Hints:
Layout: H1 2-17, E1 25-28, E2 47-50, E3 55-70, E4 73-93, E5 96-105, E6 110-123, E7 126-134, H2 157-161, E8 167-179, E9 182-191, E10 227-236, E11 240-250, E12 255-256, E13 259-260, E14 266-277, E15 284-294, E16 307-324, E17 327-342, E18 358-371, E19 374-386, E20 394-406
Antiparallel strand pairs: 1-2, 3-4, 3-20, 4-5, 5-6, 6-7, 7-8, 8-9, 9-10, 10-11, 11-14, 12-13, 14-15, 15-16, 16-17, 17-18, 18-19, 19-20
Amino acid sequence: MKKAIILCLIILSHQVFSQKDSSFIKRTPADTSKMKMNMDAVYNRPFLTAGKFPVALGGYLEANSSYFGTDGVTEGLSFQIPRLTLFLSSTIKKRIKFLSEIEFEEGGKEIAIEFASMDIELHPLLNLRGGVIMNPIGAFNQNHDGPKWEFISRPISATSIIPSTWSNVGFGIFGKYARNNFVWAYEAYMTNGFDDKIISNSESRTWLPASKENPERFEESSNGVPLITAKTAFRHRKIGEIGVSWMGGVYNKFEDDGLVIDKQRRIDLYAIDFNTNLPRINTYITGEWVWANVDVPETYSQAFGSKLQGGFLDIVQPILKRKVFGWENATLNLAFRTEYVDYNVGNFRETGGNISDHIVAIVPGISFRPSQQTVIRFNYRYHWQTDLLGNPASRTAGFQFGFSTYF
Length: 407
């Protein structure tokens, strides 16, 4: 599979770049002329086009270094390439589009198809989408490209409660309605979903990302019951965007060859997201909060939470925008993130005491953008992690430095 993907990319790049006329190749920037929403992020990226060649190319790279210590113990300085992502898009025919997103993680250790779908545009309010779909729960899961963010690490709630870049095979509908300064949008999909690994994993807790380890979710459902994801969002040009989303379905295998082996156990996630840009001072604020309810069997210990919640808030303030080293409109930003996750909301049955499996984190940072497509980032991260019994929190602190760029 890996060799086939790489071979196709080599052939495609040879077809494009073997042309003699340099004007044949053009870069199509992301469209900023209209009010874009989080649901538009999949297409709102810079692409490289070549004449009448039917396929456009794009992608981004993230690379960074980190130095962390926990309670005074450190493993020293490390360097990482978390991901290299490639985009391929094509307009097959008028109002029929195809786009795929292929991610090479951890230096090529893993190759994942995060998005590969065909869109059929019938009407602005009714469009069809099928293939590998990015489930629109929250905002970050859809709008996660590294060059768009001032922070090196992805939000904890968007990676450990909502599995980061959570996608599945399925189909659904989406649409938008725009009038003056106002836009309303919706999405609704049926896809394959979670499996028993969310409560049967090496983390020994309710851990939703464990389902990402099952590659068979792209071939068949674990139980035959579709996962439903629905989102609605509103955007006003002067106020910002707010979105409300829900994702739910049965996660366990409750039947085997017609024999009932367990009741149907549900998982439901609810999320609210918001972003705005304050006028005059251009402060950008974005946040997201998510709740998860999981029907955990009573035979499991109380270490497995049936209720989880968490979120993050980012504040980014440009402090300088001018020509720097020949880069027009280069920007220097101050950034601050605060985040919280609670993996087990509730109390112990025996004592009534609080279950304290949670993390609190703050991340101040500074970033420099020679262009909107490239960001150089420096973050300081400090977080407190409290165990199940509420013992004094372990403290982790460290520095991160790196870059992310579209290409």
